[in-house]
Amino acid sequence: MREVRLPLLPAWFRWLGVSAAATVILVFSVLLTLPSGVVTEPFSFVPLDKWRHFLAYAAFGGALAYATTDWEWSTGRLAILVLGVTVGFGIGIELWQGFLPARHFSFLDAYANALGAVLVSPWYLLRSRVAFVSLRTWITNVTD
After folding, report:
1. CA quadruple 124, 21, 84, 34: dihedral positive or negative?
2. What's the per-residue H, E or C state across the chain?
3. Domain residues of the chain, as ranges?
4. Please, are residues 30 and 96 in contact by the beta-carbon 8 Å criterion?
5. What span, in angstroms and rounded, lies between the C-alpha atoms of 130 and 49?
6. Whole-number pLDDT of residue 42
7. So what's the pLDDT on residue 140?
């Protein structure tokens, strides 16, 4: 199979993405309270707040996977690191919420966080088929 070439942004920018995702999760989990209505879109069997948890932690895990993509670690070690940090962050936020008067600890939220983290796992199966190049090289190849 042919190798796919993707741009690798500078490390500082990738880690800024991880920080931004973590900050958004922290702000919406600890400082703000979103309406907790029983809205069940896009699928009627899963409440909207669980989708928010799932997608937020998938974004955080994806940002972390991208930020660490140039590390000289084995694929397995990187996958375990990203999954562990993402799940650990989710559990930590849930535990923190248990001490806040307007919030509470939720196993279902922690579960949704962990499922979002697991969504990043297929990346590690495809990683060997991807070559990361500098943004300049990638733009040059795309425009030629």
Report:
1. negative
2. CCCEEEEECCHHHHHHHHHHHHHHHHHHHHHCCCCCCCCCCCCCCCCHHHHHHHHHHHHHHHHHHHHCCCCCCCHHHHHHHHHHHHHHHHHHHHHHHCCCCCCCCCHHHHHHHHHHHHCCCHHHHHHHHEEEEEHHHHHHHHHC
3. 4-143
4. yes
5. 34
6. 55
7. 81
Number of Cα atoms under 13 Å in the Cβ half of residue 55: 9
Interatomic CA distance for residues 42 and 26, integer angstroms: 24
Q: At what angle do helices 48-67 and 75-97 cross, to 10 degrees?
A: 140
What stretches in the chain show pLDDT beneath 50?
Answer: 39-40
Nearest to 22 by CA among 70, 54, 71, 59: 59
Q: Cβ neighbours of residue 30 under 8 Å, at least 6 residues apart?
A: 93, 96, 97, 100, 103
**Are the beta carbons of 130 and 3 closer than 8 angstroms?**
yes
Q: How far apart are the first and last CA of the chain?
A: 22
Q: Whole-angstrom Cα distance, residue 83 to residue 14?
A: 17
